[in-house]
Write a structure and sequence with these properties.
Layout (H helix, E strand, L loop, with lengths): L17 H19 L1 H17 L1 E2 L16 E8 L6 E7 L2 E8 L4 E4 L3 E4 H5 L3 H12 L5 E6 H10 L3 E5 L3 E3 L2 E3 L2 E5 L1 H9 L5 H14 L11 E2 L2 H9 L6 E3 L2 E4 L3 E4 L3 H10 L5 E7 L6 H9 L4 E8 L9 E5 L4 H11 L3 E5 L8 E5 L6
Parallel strand pairs: 2-7, 4-13, 16-17, 16-20, 18-19
Antiparallel strand pairs: 1-19, 2-3, 3-4, 5-6, 7-12, 8-11, 9-10, 14-15, 18-20
């Protein structure tokens, strides 16, 4: 329901503390990133105006064997707060696959359905459910659980484990101790100090700590988590992810103003780690004016194998019926799956490419969330 690159969001959910946390620097960077993609957004809006004159209502017969979606691994959106840089990761375990972990780098700009563009630091500041939606949208696969802890609790867990042997890539000083390079045994306080520094290699540091942490099959207790959808389930998943090799998500710089996920490398790496197919791209427009539409729609369609590449307000808020438009007949089954997930709407087809999405969703008043 908000613009993910152009335009404003008149119905954005209220997050009183976000502005305080992001600060002027983040606001300026986000504004510059928006300018960097304005031409893409302009092209998208032009294409959208053409869709209305070129689409036709479809009455298709569903495929008897739709492409299966979803992850063979159970996935956890894992957030460790309390540091100057984002410590975000996705951990996967089970499903007959080797465990894996993916670090989302600090400062990376991602699309938060219903709230537009945000850095990974801003994603960490969201409530847990919203954080899970943002992380799931970023990797293009639904995370079954989410868990949040902080550096203080992480240090306690590490001490309970007897410390961690972390592969440090450079010399690191804690008080009078000079640590690294190479495999180095760290106490809980040293791990906290290692991750709390504001440095450019935070993503590498976080990946090396996560590697060691998961390799030790940590005995995480529900009380170690400050927020979770299912503390017992999340703790169990962390404890069974031994053998994970934490990778850092590939990124690219956009004109020196923003860092975003590098595609298709990102989706390929996620598929290798967790066994997920590349997500189907969707564009969500809020046509009923209700707050929270972007996130509500994302919560329903992300588990079905979709990604929201842009969410914005429609031309008006008086649309009675939800319209789900497949961009080409090849995405007709995808549009029908969205209709099923939302429980409302009519499916249509257009041959006019959007240049960005495979399916567009104009949310009407029939959608109640």
């Amino acid at each position: 329901m908000s613009s993910g690159g152009a335009g404003g969001d008149t119905g954005r959910p209220v997050q009183p503390s976000r502005a305080e946390r992001s600060g002027a620097t983040h606001r300026r960077r986000r504004a510059e990133a928006i300018l960097a993609v304005v031409l893409v957004a302009a092209g998208l809006l032009f294409a959208a105006t053409q869709v209305r004159g070129a689409r036709s209502t479809a009455t298709p017969t569903p495929s008897t064997s739709p492409t299966p979606r979803g992850s063979p691994s159970s996935l956890l959106a894992f957030s460790v707060t309390g540091g100057p840089n984002a410590l975000l990761a996705v951990v996967g375990s089970g499903g007959g696959r080797a465990p894996g972990a993916l670090v989302l780098p600090p400062g990376m700009t991602v699309v938060v359905p219903g709230q537009g563009d945000a850095t990974t630091e801003e994603v960490q500041a969201l409530p847990g459910e919203s954080m899970r939606v943002a992380v799931s949208n970023t990797i293009g696969a639904w995370t079954d659980h989410y868990a949040v802890t902080d550096l203080r609790h992480l240090g306690r867990i590490v001490d309970r484990m007897g410390g961690l042997t972390v592969d440090i890539t450079d010399v690191f000083t804690v008080g009078n101790d000079v640590l690294g390079p190479g495999p180095t045994h760290l106490s809980g306080d040293q791990v906290v100090a290692f991750l709390r520094q504001k440095v450019d290699d935070t993503a590498t540091r976080w990946a090396s700590v996560l590697d060691a942490f998961l390799a030790a099959s940590p005995d995480v207790q529900p009380g170690d988590l400050t927020e979770a959808d299912d503390a017992t389930g999340a703790a169990a998943l962390l404890g069974t992810a031994a053998g994970s090799a934490a990778k850092v998500a590939p990124t690219q710089d956009v004109g020196g103003t923003a860092v975003i996920a590098q595609q298709p490398d990102m989706d390929q790496l996620v598929g290798q780690l967790f066994g997920t197919p590349a997500p189907v791209r969707s564009l969500v427009q809020n046509g009923n004016g209700a707050p929270g539409i972007g996130e509500a729609v994302a919560t329903l369609i992300l588990p079905e194998g979709f990604r929201v590449v842009l969410s914005q307000n429609a031309d008006s808020f008086d649309h009675a019926t939800t319209e789900i438009v497949a961009i080409g007949k090849q995405h007709l089954t995808d549009a029908m799956e969205i209709q099923k997930a939302l429980g409302v709407g009519k499916v249509e087809v257009t041959q006019v490419p959007s240049g960005l999405a495979d399916v567009t969703i104009l949310v009407g008043k029939d959608f109640k969330g």
